[in-house]
Design brief:
The protein has about 400 residues and is an alpha+beta fold. It has a domain of about 260 residues: 3-Layer(aba) Sandwich (Peroxisomal Thiolase, Chain A, domain 1), CATH 3.40.47.10. Strand 11 and strand 12 form a beta hairpin. It is globular and about 60 Å long. It starts with a strand and ends with a strand.
Amino acid sequence: MTSAYLFAATRTPFGRFNGALAESRPDDLAAAAVQGVLRKTPDLDPAAIGDVVWGCANQAGEDNRNVGRMAVLLAGLPVSVPATTVNRLCGSSLDAAIIGSRAIETGDADVVLVGGVESMTRAPWVLPKPSKAFPVGNVTAVSTTLGWRLVNDNMPKEWTISLGECNELLGEKFGISRERQDAFAARSHVLAAAAWDAGFYDDLTVAVGDLVRDEGLRPDSTAGKLAKLKPSFRPDGTITAGNASPLNDGASAVLLGSEAAADRIGSAPIARVAGRGVSAVDPVMFGYAPVEAADRALARAGITWADVSAVELNEAFAVQSLACVDAWDIDPEIVNAKGGAIAIGHPLGASGGRILGTLAARLKESGGRYGVAAICIGVGQALAVVLENVA
């Protein structure tokens, strides 16, 4: 078996809910990310792409009918380039990268384009279809933006509580204070803004219209300011709009290939996919699932946390991020050193590609050898990928 390498990555800036990308269809955002990553490898003939694996968590509106294939066609790639769309909720684009890397390792493809997209603004309301025409009672339109909808009555009620309540329970379980959460969230904004100001994200993003930076950044955030926000899920809770990731729109793309494909791609690889991990837990504890996923990925890479110099952990909530970092017993300063989802945003299907591309760029910048990208997933799952710097 050959190894799979990361050659290039890019993403759109992430827009706020009802913000600058509200008028952009998800398939157009996906196409923008595809075009952006291919512009970074101008010597690559797009016809040489063996497959496109795309992530999307919604797929109930304009992102239906295999949005990965729609992105390929809208981006102007040859019609001979195939594509599929996968859904592992928040982990969809990291799942796409895992699937793509396996295809390369087994020899099924030499070049695979992966990524993901989400427009949480444009996610539609849906109506359940009645079993018989003209039902007597009322029918309620359900938002597909986030969380459970059209829940099976046989599903245990304790598993279908809100994502926020799940993380209130997680915070109680591990004794993680509001103060720690607010400090973590403020750090995310400060570091993300500093990374943008330093030019770190310039090569990792492709503008969409007038949006050239992540729209939700608050460089002046402090724990003191965040402490003034009211809890969102419980009157006496610890989770607020300030220490949880927001609703966002955006897309990400990553180009993977074999070592032999370097000449065809026209550039040297940046990082090798060294290990992968997936895990599942009680749905209520989904925020803690990255702990085991990352440990499994490290074991498959044949390394330990002592070998890791950079971690990109998707910040769904500050509380779950802190719980994971505490469990790994690592230096918190290596985690999300360029900011995280609380500041940058979390357009569900795009976040896995974002953290993978950011991780590769951090390793290239620092010269560190190994890094971990990990993401929690609603309904009790998580994914993780270990990258080895080869730049």
